[in-house]
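Good morning,

Both structures are done.
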Amino acid sequence: MHITENRDALVNVEDANSASKALIIESKHTYKLTSEWKQPKLNGNPHNVKVRIIAAGLNTIDYKSVDYNFNLPQYPWTLGREASGIVIEAGAEASKTLSVGDRVWVSTYYKYIDGGVFQEYIVVPSHTVIKIPSTITYDKAATLGVTALTASMTLHHYFNISIDANTPDSLLVWGASTVTAQFIIQLAVRSGMNVYGVASETNLKLVESLGAIPISRSNKTYDEIVDEVNAVSNNSIKYVADLIGIESSNAALRLLKRGGVIAPLASMTLGKDAKIPDGVDVKIIEMKRFILDSSYKWHADYLNKLIQANELVFPAIEILNGFESIQKGLDRLKQGNMNGKKLVVLF
């Protein structure tokens, strides 16, 4: 299901000075749905942009921040890091590249309370506001600000894989049916990499359709999976992107030799007991770089170029409706077994 109605008309009828709806974190571990949230303002910053949120992507980091009490500088606070919407106001500098009424997608930073996308309006730096290609709808655009950007930054910044080079190195993606993994596989294949994807038996066809050699994890121990990856890849794995957790990341370390690189994308750590082989590099992916350093905007521009040319396949999207559905959606993510689907909330 995709958003087909003309929501651009909202820009002409919304009262940009009234209170607005939001799902906030009121106190430790406590969500609150409110219609009295104060709208953020540009506050005279010429580089800021105000966006009316139309669709927001849900990510595991959203519920983990609440459950484990991190990335919440104070209470109340806002959540949500990727969305799409309409520009309703732009500062003097921002208006050189963005106009009122532009359809845009955004990637935001947890330290900016004005940027949490689980509210009707956000105010964010202009370099994090990207025009939506004409070929896609708001729901698809709402999947780009975390998952697709993470994929591009992992491969083309942290792994230093050129977008143009024919790179025959081998990449293992563990958790290959997850949404971020789906984007990683496609971008890696475009760069000429040999890609292997570990996933459940149910999702092997999806992994293969994206260009990876599928390897089932179902009913296997970590040792058995590692042995199979080595056999299928002829012991050639140089890069690992793990989207499952500490145990799978530590298992994947056994695939790497000197010069190898691993990115533990799910856990952001290998744990204190990890046995890292000599010469293997561990990359912790910091998405905040996209927000704090405008030079990273090229990742968004590259994704847009692929999208405009219909060269990027989006994950299956399930639409949820309204602010009241956000917490239910986050509970769904917590349960796992999304089978490659992306949850997007339409406001």
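Second structure follows.
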Amino acid sequence: MKRFTDQVKKFVDSDVRRWASTHENIRHYPEELINTMKSLGLFGLNVPSEFGGFTATPKELLDIVRELARGFVPLTGMLGSHLKVCEYLVRFGTASQRENLLPKMANGSMIAAHAYTEKEGKSPDSLQTNLQLLSDKLMLQGNKILITNAANADLIAIVASYQTRNDEQDRKVGIALLSSKQDGLVISDDIPRLGMEGISLCNLNFECEITTEQMLGGIEFNGKKALEEVQIGTLINYSARAVGLAETIVKETIEYVESKKSVGHLLKDISAVQNKIASMKSRLKEEENILNELVSRFEEGTNLIKDAYKTKAFTTESTVDIARIGLALHGGVGYTKQHQIERHLREAIGLTLIGAPTDVALARAEIL
């Protein structure tokens, strides 16, 4: 597996970083990068070999996420959404769903998006997307917002609420598996935003007739179980992205101060600059240690949802701090697009918001 991770590292250094430095601000879909990711097998990282993938350990998977984040964080968002839907199918899908979908998902010919967020937030208890059970079909109605890679996905997993009996209070969570070309599904244009360009971010509107075969695990399966059981891995994935981004920021900032002068001295020889670089390195090391400890406990099967939320909050906020120091050391030129530090800061801020904003993550850690 180390050889595989080394291949990803080489891909990031030779292709991804170069692409991100020239395309990120023009909303250009990175098709050439995604094709290479397919050839590397990244879309089947958590799919069993019988379906054409290979089941990486949590540590191996997160090492790859960290490598990709070193180059271009939005790639990890697209891949993370896809792998989440893969995990749903591997763990909770029917035999037919696994056989029909997983081989195509593993080789990347079918890329999945995950549609959960609504205007009211992201909670199984407040879902407004409704699934109505009719005699021989299902009606799916609702809206989703800020869905990663929706414009380029082939399959979209939509989280919905539905009534199981006549009692309105007795509701389950269902996860509908829709083709992106499903009749009644409307995908918005790409949403303008501060950062995380390249991979689309769209709203969904839908009023679709679907079949019971399109429901993850069948109509009797309660999708709330799927949401809960993949959440720890999702939060750790966010932290791995933050650590990978922080690693790049530290490396690029060191390279910058080693090559630039101020008042006749190389920046690297100024004590105040040395102190800031030391602070960046120390913060990165702390992020790495906390993440590695969490992953080790996760592989042991420990239930650590509280710690996962806290780690997500810490690593993402720490990476913002590292980016701000890096920007300051670049000086005024860092505020321009001549260097990548301004993009890194935008991506770092974005990581504090996705999944669960920092205050929300810490609040959830306290009440769980």
